[in-house]
Design goal:
- The protein is built from 17 helices and seven strands.
- The protein is an alpha+beta fold.
- Strands 1, 2, 3, 4, 5, 6 and 7 form a seven-stranded mixed beta sheet that branches.
- The protein is elongated and about 80 Å long.
């Protein structure tokens, strides 16, 4: 069993304690009361740095509020209460039925409830809700389920590290406040800590993710880049001001739900928004319409935001004024991204056609930090200015993993271009098929020989899958550029098979028992 499965299985066993006798109908009230009690207890047990950090954050907020125009704030408790009531009433009627929400609402045991929220928040990082639902359901039914397919394998490593801390040092009990969650659990940041604390333990702490940031920017007409330090601080301050102390978990989920389903990035459904009467972006749209009809578009509106000195740092940038065609989508304006830097490398698919048990291909593991940390790939080298130097460097890299190889068999097959978030990487694709050579039976640490079927379910990047398609298209009996059929989705899988590996046997060793496991790629 892999370390990730072992640790999480132990955590799950600990958290599967007998359920309390209370019914699920009292969950919201009990969680809220428990959250307030645990907040006081956990805060008193936290390390000395936690209160200091909290005081520093409060001081930052005071300084920030003093420098922000009231136009971007909620001016009184009546406005805050109206926002809370409207949003929660809408959420109670319109919220999506999601498995992690059901788990949080029905679960009485606080550790099990926190675990359920924790797993969902990790899985949802940069992954769409529709993709996560099946994985989450299967994971919660049995811990050692398939992670492959979610991508971003570093999330699995962070979950493993946090689970180890809970089991080995915290007695199987989750920290009860956002402050202690962030302080004690590796990989748990401010947002995840706030989500767990508010949803599982009823702590009145706000959260800000991409959806919440967009909602707040529009409601308070914040047009500056939300990723900047100043705007980020203001958004967290607003989130904390707005969170409902009686239903903090529901409120935070409602704000996220509003951003995901109504206040969307490009086509917001303003007519369906429960807080449209409080939305300054919507008010701006309504004011601009008569101005546009009178050909006064662009005229200054001094009633909007009038900072005492200088240009307001939360308003639309001076060089990007109000665009009538965008409406509420004017808020927020994101800073233009720098174009990805361009890099090139050479990579080779090395295949043993006569290996024991069938043909096998070589994968090596990337370092545990940096781009695609911990994932598996074909042996690769940086680009060389000449074909001769390129082939020499690539052959040396291949021999480092597989021993002496026939240089004459190394063939250039084409190129693959893949764009990551900040890098445009061009791969020069090579292939080397070993036919008559004695099969390689040992591999150094960090390398594995896999069947083609195993490769398609391994922890490899999309770029490597593109590379392999180029290689497959050049082999006898295949059509150039052909694609392998899609691997079945989790919902269609009846039971694990060699093509549908679960975490505890994700590529059991075929040659050397000491070789690293592929599902540990990002651990």
């Amino acid at each position: 069993m892999t370390p990730l499965v072992s640790r999480l299985s132990r955590l799950w066993v600990i958290m599967r304690k007998p359920r309390a006798a209370a019914g699920s109908g009292h969950r919201k009230q009990a969680a809220s009361q428990e959250g307030r009690q645990k907040h006081a207890k956990s805060s008193s047990q936290a390390k000395p740095s936690a209160p200091n950090a909290g005081l520093a954050r409060q001081l930052e907020e005071v300084v920030l509020q003093a420098s922000v125009s009231p136009y971007h704030l909620f001016r009184d408790i009546a406005e805050v209460t109206a926002f809370q009531g409207s949003l929660l009433s809408w959420y109670d009627q319109e919220k999506r039925d999601l498995p992690w929400r059901r788990q949080a609402e029905d679960e009485v045991d606080p550790d099990r409830r926190a675990y359920a929220v924790w797993v969902s928040e990790v899985m949802l990082q940069q992954t769409q809700v529709a993709t996560v639902i099946n994985y989450y359901t299967r994971w919660m039914q049995e811990v050692n389920q398939l992670w492959a397919g979610l991508g971003y394998y570093s999330r699995g490593r962070r979950l493993q590290e946090g689970a180890r801390k809970v089991v080995e040092e915290l007695g199987g009990h989750m920290p009860r406040t956002a402050e202690t969650l962030q302080q004690l659990l590796p990989g748990v940041g401010r947002y995840t800590a706030g989500a767990i604390a508010s949803i599982a333990f009823g702590q009145a702490t706000g959260v800000v993710d991409g959806n919440v940031a967009r909602v707040l920017c529009r409601v308070r007409a914040i047009g500056a880049d939300p990723s900047s330090n100043l705007v980020s601080q203001q958004l967290w301050s607003l989130a904390q001001q707005l969170v409902d102390p009686a239903r903090p978990g529901d409120f935070n989920q409602a704000a996220m739900e509003l951003g995901a389903t109504v206040c969307t990035p490009q086509r917001p459904l303003c007519s369906q928004c429960p807080v449209q009467s409080l939305c300054r972006a919507r008010q701006r749209v309504e004011r601009e319409r008569p101005l546009a009809s009178q050909s006064l578009l662009g005229s200054p509106d001094v009633e909007e935001c009038a900072p005492s000195t200088g240009q307001c740092q939360l308003c639309l940038p001076p060089l990007e004024p109000w665009d009538q065609t965008l409406g509420v989508v004017n808020f927020p304006r994101k800073a233009s991204r720098k174009p990805p830097r361009e890099e090139s490398s050479a990579t080779c698919v090395l295949e043993q056609l006569r290996a024991r048990g069938g043909a096998r291909i070589l994968l090596v593991q990337r370092p545990n930090s940096g781009l695609l940390a911990g994932l598996w790939e074909f042996p690769s080298v940086t680009w060389e200015p000449s074909e001769q130097l390129q082939r020499k460097a690539l052959l040396q890299e291949l021999q480092r993993w597989a021993g002496p190889l026939p240089a004459t068999h190394l063939r250039h097959l084409g190129e693959v271009v893949h764009v990551f978030s900040h890098i445009k990487l061009t791969y020069q694709v090579y292939g080397l098929a070993l036919e008559g050579q004695t099969p390689v039976t040992t591999v150094p640490p960090g390398a594995r020989w896999l069947t083609r079927e195993e490769f398609h379910t391994a922890a490899v990047s999309t770029a490597m899958k593109k590379v392999f398609r180029v290689y497959e298209g050049q082999q006898p009996g295949t059509c150039k550029g052909s694609k392998r059929p899609q691997v079945s989705s989790p919902s269609s899988r009846k039971k694990p098979s060699m093509g549908q590996q679960v975490l505890d046997d994700f590529f059991r060793p075929h040659i050397s028992a000491d070789a690293p496991s592929l599902n540990n790629a990002a651990q």
